[in-house]
Amino acid sequence: MDIKKTKLYYEQINSSDICDCAYCKNYVREIKSTYPKLAKYLGSLGVDIEKPFETMPLELDEKTGRIEYISAQYIVYGGTDDFSKKVIGCVNVDIAETHPPTQINEAHFVIEIYPISLKWVV
Ligand SMILES: [Zn+2]
Q1: What is the pLDDT of residues 2-47, one digit of tens each?
Q2: Domain of 69?
Q3: Rama region for 17: left / alpha / beta (φ>0; ψ in -120 to 50; rest)
Q4: Which domain of life is it from (predicted)?
Q5: What H or E segment, with its residue span, contains residue 24?
Q6: Distance (Å, rounded) from C-alpha 22 to C-alpha 118?
Q7: Rounded Cα distance, 61 and 49, in Å
Q8: H-helix or E-strand spanning residue 59
Q9: How far, in Å, from the CA of 37 to the mean position of ligand 1?
């Protein structure tokens, strides 16, 4: 893993670069305050939890006012050799086996965190 490069990458992403659909907006607003330990762990890898590469939402549960995300994906620079799967609280952090094209030419991989349950605030 190249934590330095990963950090730089996330610093360069603006909020306007992030998908502005309601599901992603809701995710960005709630993720850090709902999962502070997870945010801290991803931060130690250089990843900004509020800048997901992709989120995979399920349907909004009208009764509970919550929404589940099957997973959210994040780009990490470098190789996977020193990455190890982790469970933070009830959330898995693992390498994503499938993901959309990243358009990055340097060595990188995609991790995913799952499952995620958030309040619907959008
Ligand atoms: Zn979106």
Answers
A1: 999 999 999 999 988 999 999 999 999 999 999 999 999 999 999 9
A2: 3-119
A3: alpha
A4: Bacteria
A5: helix 22-34
A6: 13
A7: 23
A8: strand 54-61
A9: 24
Q: Say what the pTM is.
A: 0.95
Dihedral sign for Cα 105, 12, 94, 121, please: negative
Instruction: Collect residues with CB below 5 Å from ion ligand 1.
Output: 19, 21, 24
SS3 15: helix
The dihedrals phi and psi of 12, each to the nearest 5 degrees, come to: -85, -15
Q: How many domains does the chain have?
A: 1
Q: How far, in Å, from the CA of 52 to the mean position of ligand 1?
A: 9
Mean of the per-residue pLDDT values of the chain: 96
State phi, psi for 85 to the nearest 5 degrees: -60, 140
